[in-house]
Amino acid sequence: MTDQSVWQNAPLPATVDHVLERFHETHRRQFASIIPLAQKVSERHADKVSADLLPLVQHIEAELASHMMKEERMLFPMIKGGMGRNAGMPIRVMMMEHEDHSAVLQQLFDLTDNLTPPADACNSWQRLYAELREFADDLLAHIDFENNLLFPRALNEEA
């Protein structure tokens, strides 16, 4: 459940756990499927698919993995430990990275005609774009949840 009203009043440690379970684990599962699909589509349709698609998807995955690791190893333990008021700098860094993630998603949309497969796209290509759409929607919800709920609460130390 990602209804922000529920999480607005939940204990901060539970809210962090929700982010880990709902978003971080979801993104890892998504990329376990997306990367092989992107490789397959890029190889089989090299004459039709932009040569930039696979490197861009791999870049998104690597940047997001690094971002989530920083949250999991540094920021989230601070928040769960009641030190949210002292987390201003890490939170600012994470929010700047969120802006970068949004910009890279826009690059993906631009490269793929807003994730619209060609009319003659094979099933794998259609599935890749559908999974990328689901990922993009989840990532934007993830960013919104952290920027507008978790981080402000942590900075105010609403435990």
Topology:
Blueprint: H1 4-8, H2 12-44, H3 53-80, H4 88-111, H5 123-155
Helix pairs in contact: 2-3, 2-5, 3-4, 4-5
- What is the typical, i.e. mean, pLDDT? 95
Largest sheet: none
Structural Rg: 17 Å
Helix content: over 70%
Q: Quaternary arrangement of the chains shown?
A: single chain
Cα distance spanning the termini? 20 Å
User: Strand-and-helix sequence, N→C?
Assistant: HHHHH
Shape: elongated
Number of strands: 0
Strand content: under 5%
How many separate domains?
A: 1
Structure annotation, total helices:
5
- By secondary-structure content and strand pairing, the structural class works out as mainly alpha
Unreliable segments (pLDDT under 50, ≥5 consecutive)?
A: none
Overview of this protein structure:
- By secondary structure, the protein is an all-alpha fold.
- It has helices at 4-8, 12-44, 53-80, 88-111, 123-155.
- Helix 2 (12-44) runs antiparallel to helix 3, helix 3 packs antiparallel against helix 4 (88-111) and helix 4 (88-111) runs antiparallel to helix 5 (123-155).
- It is elongated.
- The protein starts with a helix and ends with a helix.
- The mean pLDDT is 95.
Entry keywords:
159 residues, mainly alpha, 5 helices, elongated
Briefly characterize the structure.
The chain is an all-alpha fold. The longest helix is centred in the first third of the chain and has 33 residues, at 12-44.
